[in-house]
Amino acid sequence: MTYPMEICLTGYLATNPNFALKMTKRENKMFRNRICGCQLALAMLLSINSCQRNQQPAEQTPTLAVMTVTGSSNNFKETFPATIKGKQDIDIRPQVSGFITKVLVDEGAQVRKGQVLFEIDPVQYQQAVNVAKAAVAVARTAVSTAQLTASNKASLAARKVISDYEKSVADNQLAQAKSQLAQAQASLVAAQKNLSYTKVVSPSNGVVGKIEFRAGALVSPSTPQAMTTVSENDHIYANFAMTEKKMLELSNTHHNQNAIINNLPAVELQMADGSIYPQKGKVATISGVIDQETGSVNVRAEFANSKGLLRSGGACNILIPHTLAHGITIPQNATYEIQDKRFAYKVDKSNKLSATVIEVYPLNNGKNYVVTAGLKEGDRILTEGVASVHDGQSINIRK
Question: How far apart, in Å, are the Cα atoms of 210 and each of 107, 213, 214, 224, 363?
């Protein structure tokens, strides 16, 4: 602290006592009176400064909002990331080799069972059919000739004109001609089948996926990549994973898999844009094997898709509703967390705060917690200023 110049003279006089002797009597008296006044002022300043240091500020009582907790029913939706798959996704592959001459559909087109999707150059296969037909005709003629020979030999053998050996040879030649006819007919059927394969058709109703080959491309049954995929999507499946812990919770309530599936509620599908698909679905299957790498079980939900809004390969979220029949709901901002424990401030009858450990339901809506332990109906808790108060502090309640 800085003091006036006159006060500093006191120290100077104490160290220089002869200074006053050099003054006149009147000057000496005036100087000493001033020194006395300065000493009195200094003593008062030191006293005030000491009191200020010893004085502690009084704690102010804040005015904060309080709520009385009550029990109520709470609805939650548990979210699981999922992948959409068609009821069946069929890879379309060629069954004969050749160049594609026509592509008769486009990507994303709705097709029906038996509809032609691609045409492969049929010239060589048509030629094979013609050759097979000619072979059948030749074989049929050979059968007719062998039949006449065998009949004639049988007549001559009956009159003992020829031996039975010659008759048997004629019969064997007829049998051989019939076998060759059957072989030619089988070759014709195979050739006709290969010719039909030059028209690649859809095996089911569905939607055409990406078309990998266009007109002029050479394809064959050994080509590793499919020509396209047809997804049957009048019904779709949403595949998602459920943790082993969750499955154990369900198994404790329902003791077999069929009971779990039958008692699960209808589920919702949240599309990629965040909107909810208008039709609810049902969990159809739960895998009986836990994936050792992820520690989860594969679950499949089924949804009707008559309008084709959902497409195979898309991403979505499956929402499974949960209802907690009785729980105490409090705002999340009325709590705080220390070392993995969550606390709330109870307010007693004298408006004093008491930090209380609480347990909350694992699901929440992002705004509130449902307390499962630590509070009871009728308790009062602090709902604002949680970070600015401490245990045992008194407050005023905001009206």
Answer: 6, 9, 11, 15, 40
